[in-house]
Design brief:
Blueprint (H helix, E strand, L loop, with lengths): L5 H4 L16 H5 L15 H4 L3 H10 L8 H10 L3 E2 L12 E6 L5 E5 L12 E5 L2 E6 L2 H15 L4 H13 L4 H5 L4 H9 L3 H13 L3 H11 L10 H12 L3 H11 L11 H8 L4 H9 L2 H9 L4 H19 L2 H14 L3 H8 L2
Antiparallel strand pairs: 1-2, 2-3, 3-4, 4-5
InterPro entries: PAB
Length: 355
């Protein structure tokens, strides 16, 4: 049986003792607050502008994935939010595991993440592509759409997103559901009724800090870092480290940062060097990974009893981590595809090599 390396799947860390502002409260909703959402009322009909065929074909024939049933609705919603469709083949300069969907005016891509072995409940996450890797936007297309519908309703916009989401949107959310829930804020509604989102966790924790309640902030951050919430992502632990520094817990911040660095480095939500600095790491970890990619390192792993396939998959994970250090994705694409092929992941190999 093929297994991914601990780096590829992320190693859970022990509980941590454990941003942004602007969760919309019910009072703010009644005043028409738009702090968390920008209305895009001048967008032309996104359905007319969108051709889904290329992305569906790419997912099926290149990424070897069944296209999500909500793919059309997701892309419509992204366009209604002001993003433009990009070709899924437009993968130069980005992490090889991303499938581009759309891009913002600033050029940031929204994409689907093609995990080699996805964690439960995160088969096809929606991510923002960054130079250092990705940040998680939603665990699934449906959660992304659901959140967008709630935010549009709370912001009092015209319904462009609701219209673009079609039947998928209607099955997820009806206008007025937030008001009828009697919940205290948008963030609380999202957490209770929609799903768990990294930026919402971070916003809730930082609000506690702003209110002078460091303990509640740390408790929120610890819950955020629970291994069951965002398996495979290091960002929750990085946030814990940053928060602990902020409240003066330097030793615990170092532990949290080191825990984060046991996850794939392209999931940290920031550059490796920033997290390594909190962890107190120098170049030794980078040198260790480079050694594991040499023939000598390969022989050592084989002598330890690892199969050739497992060694190759481990090397793929190490190579991705090293590429995340400086964002040198194109330079490793060919070698990465070779490692996955050797590890028995032929579909992933073909997907990575197609750019």
């Amino acid at each position: 049986m093929k297994t991914m390396s601990s780096k590829a799947l992320a190693v859970p860390c022990p509980p941590l003792s454990g941003g942004r502002k602007n969760s919309v409260t019910r009072g703010e909703r009644s005043r028409g607050s738009r702090n968390n959402f920008v209305c895009f009322n001048a967008i032309s009909n996104p359905s007319a502008a969108l051709t889904q065929t290329e992305h569906s074909t790419f997912l099926t024939e290149v990424a070897a994935l069944e296209p999500p049933a909500s793919l059309q609705a997701l892309m419509n919603v992204l366009q209604a939010k002001g993003e433009r469709v990009v070709s899924p083949y437009n993968r130069k300069g980005i992490i090889p595991l991303a499938i581009p969907l759309t891009a913002t005016e600033d050029g940031d891509m929204t994409a689907l993440l093609r995990w080699p072995t996805p964690a439960s409940g995160m088969d096809v996450p929606v991510v923002r592509v960054k130079s250092f890797g990705v940040t998680l936007l939603a665990k699934s297309p449906e959660e992304y759409i659901h959140r967008a519908l709630v935010e549009e309703d709370v912001a009092g916009c015209s319904g462009r997103i609701c219209e673009s989401a079609g039947e998928v949107g209607s099955s997820l959310y009806q206008r007025g559901n937030f008001e009828a829930s009697k919940l205290s804020s948008l963030d609380v509604y999202l957490m209770k009724k929609v799903g768990l989102f990294p930026d919402v966790f971070e916003r809730l924790a930082m609000r506690h800090v702003e209110n002078g309640d460091d303990i509640s902030a740390l408790v929120t951050a610890e819950y955020y870092a629970s291994k069951k919430h965002f398996p495979g992502f290091g960002r929750p632990f990085v946030f814990n480290a940053e928060l602990m520094l902020k409240v003066g817990r330097k030793l615990e911040a170092k532990d949290a940062a080191r825990c984060a660095l046991r996850s794939p480095w392209w999931t940290l939500g920031s550059w490796y060097a920033d997290v390594a600095n909190i962890a107190g790491w120098g170049e030794e970890q980078i040198e260790f990974m480079r050694e594991r990619l040499t023939e000598e390192g390969r022989r050592e792993d084989l002598l330890k009893g690892k199969s050739l396939e497992q060694v190759a998959v481990d090397q793929a994970a190490f190579l991705l981590d090293l590429a995340a250090v400086e964002g040198t994705w194109d330079a490793v694409r060919e070698q990465l595809a070779d490692y996955y092929k050797e590890g028995g992941f032929d579909d992933i190999s073909r997907f990575i090599s197609t750019a």
